[in-house]
């Protein structure tokens, strides 16, 4: 039986084919950009007024003029006007293009608008600091043609904003393959159905597909009963159609645990079966020419921890998302686990005043107790070569919840 890091290395050695698709910009946050974004115009694209007030010719102020007849109004969104009269001013609004024949903007707070006879005038109360003040000159953020987002970046709302400003209605992003998520077992009924006393609802497929949604991946759900010929026939079709297949259940020692045997018969090469870990020991992983197959142990917490410890980090790596270091969290209490297995301890995580992640165990009733997952935020990976884990020690953390 192999250990957790060996299992993880084997999985990480397998590559998934990632293609490119063009999507509406509003669907792309969190995806990987597959093009570079350059500016189609200067930023800002015109000399932009930065304050509501008036625009003047600075020279006139320097020559001693402090009362300026108001010639008109330059609104944001209005085409550029050109000031007509020498020594006049224009009222200007933030975001407007600077009117022609003006070069300095003075805020309303620093002037007074007065009615003198029939004329509206602006009287300057506070000296402008310099020629050109309160104007954001064309191209001073960035010039046209500047590279603003690189291929391979994870699209955050910042890149979405930049893409929108250059008029990209659609973006090229990594296409994540469609995934088959398969639950197995005669005891499982659809979640819409009322189970008989000996039955339960198929929750695992929903857990896995919800996790995949975090990566914008769509899953098609299947269910296989514990029937050799049914499993064999349906797996044929599924393996042909899907590059990534995630099963849950049917991988341990039971008489009806047919999954590993049938997968191998179908030409899916076993890369490992069983990992020195709890939960999730009977985890099976393999690969055929067309598909990568994760067969996760059926107990809901085992499926869950294998999904977050192996499947999700591997997918992030394939997509180019995981650039950060492994998260770590400090135990808040002493903990003992004496088996020679890596233990995935369910924990509630808090970030303390120094920004350090603190993990407190949330005790459940074992690997079938999926309700306990709602009390925690993630799993702490406690290494197999240690039995006693002390408060204050840090261990790798696998989060399933945004903190
Ligand atoms: N003789 C042995 N028996 C078992 C071993 C072992 O080493 N020797 N390992 C145990 C461990 S550890 C686990 S984990 C389970 C995993 O077994 P399977 O992967 O074969 O899973 P099943 O037997 O099909 O199911 C286990 C359990 O989980 C429930 N389940 C399964 N699928 C779902 C689903 N989609 N949604 C909700 N719940 C599900 C299922 O009803 C069972 O109660 O094997 C131990 N046995
Ligand atoms: O791995 Mo099993 O998950 O210990 O119940």
TrEMBL record:
Residues 180-317 form the MoaB/Mog domain. The lineage of its organism: Bacteria, Pseudomonadati, Balneolota, Balneolia, Balneolales. InterPro entries: MoaB/Mog-like_dom_sf, MoaB/Mog_dom, MoCF_biosynth_CS, MoeA-like, MoeA_C_domain_IV, MoeA_C_domain_IV_sf, MoeA_linker/N, MoeA_linker/N_sf. This is Molybdopterin molybdenumtransferase. Its EC number is 2.10.1.1. Keywords: Magnesium, Metal-binding, Molybdenum, Molybdenum cofactor biosynthesis, Transferase. The keyword Magnesium applies. It comes from Fodinibius salicampi. It catalyses: adenylyl-molybdopterin + molybdate = Mo-molybdopterin + AMP + H(+). Catalyzes the insertion of molybdate into adenylated molybdopterin with the concomitant release of AMP. SUPFAM superfamilies: MoeA C-terminal domain-like, MoeA N-terminal region -like, Molybdenum cofactor biosynthesis proteins.
């Amino acid at each position: 039986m192999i250990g957790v890091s060996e299992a993880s290395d084997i999985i990480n050695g397998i590559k998934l084919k990632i293609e490119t698709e063009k999507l509406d910009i509003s669907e792309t946050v969190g995806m990987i950009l597959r093009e570079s974004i350059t500016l189609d115009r200067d930023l800002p694209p015109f000399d932009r007024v930065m304050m509501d007030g008036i625009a003047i010719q600075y020279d006139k102020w320097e020559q001693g003029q402090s009362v300026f007849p108001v010639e008109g109004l330059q609104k944001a969104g209005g085409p550029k006007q050109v000031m007509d009269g020498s020594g006049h001013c224009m009222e200007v609004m933030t975001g407007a293009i600077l009117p022609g024949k003006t070069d300095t903007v003075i805020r309303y707070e620093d002037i007074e608008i007065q009615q003198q006879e029939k004329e509206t005038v602006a009287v300057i109360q506070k000296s402008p600091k310099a020629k050109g003040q309160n104007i954001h000159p064309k191209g001073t953020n960035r010039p046209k043609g500047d590279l603003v987002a690189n291929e391979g970046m994870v699209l955050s709302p910042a890149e979405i904003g930049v893409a929108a400003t250059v008029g990209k209605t659609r973006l090229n992003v990594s296409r994540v393959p469609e995934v088959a998520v398969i639950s197995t077992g005669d005891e499982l009924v659809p979640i819409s159905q009322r189970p008989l006393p000996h039955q339960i609802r198929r929750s695992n497929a929903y857990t896995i597909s919800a996790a995949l949604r975090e990566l914008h991946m769509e899953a098609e759900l299947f269910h296989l009963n514990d029937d050799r010929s049914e499993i064999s026939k349906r797996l044929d079709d599924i393996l042909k159609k899907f590059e990534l297949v995630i099963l849950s259940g049917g991988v341990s020692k039971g008489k009806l645990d047919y999954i590993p045997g049938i997968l191998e018969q179908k030409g899916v090469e076993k890369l490992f079966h069983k990992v020195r870990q709890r939960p999730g020991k009977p985890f099976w992983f393999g690969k055929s020419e067309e598909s990568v197959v994760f067969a996760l142990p059926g107990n809901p917490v085992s499926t869950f921890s294998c999904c977050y410890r192996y499947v999700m980090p591997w997918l992030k790596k394939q997509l180019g998302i995981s650039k950060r270091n492994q998260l770590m969290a400090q135990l808040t209490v002493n903990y003992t686990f004496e088996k020679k297995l890596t233990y995935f301890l369910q924990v509630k995580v808090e970030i303390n005043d120094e920004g350090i992640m603190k993990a407190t165990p949330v005790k459940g009733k074992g690997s079938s107790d999926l309700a306990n997952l709602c009390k925690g935020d993630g799993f702490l990976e406690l290494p197999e070569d240690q039995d006693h884990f002390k408060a204050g020690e840090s261990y790798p953390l696998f989060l399933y919840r945004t903190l």
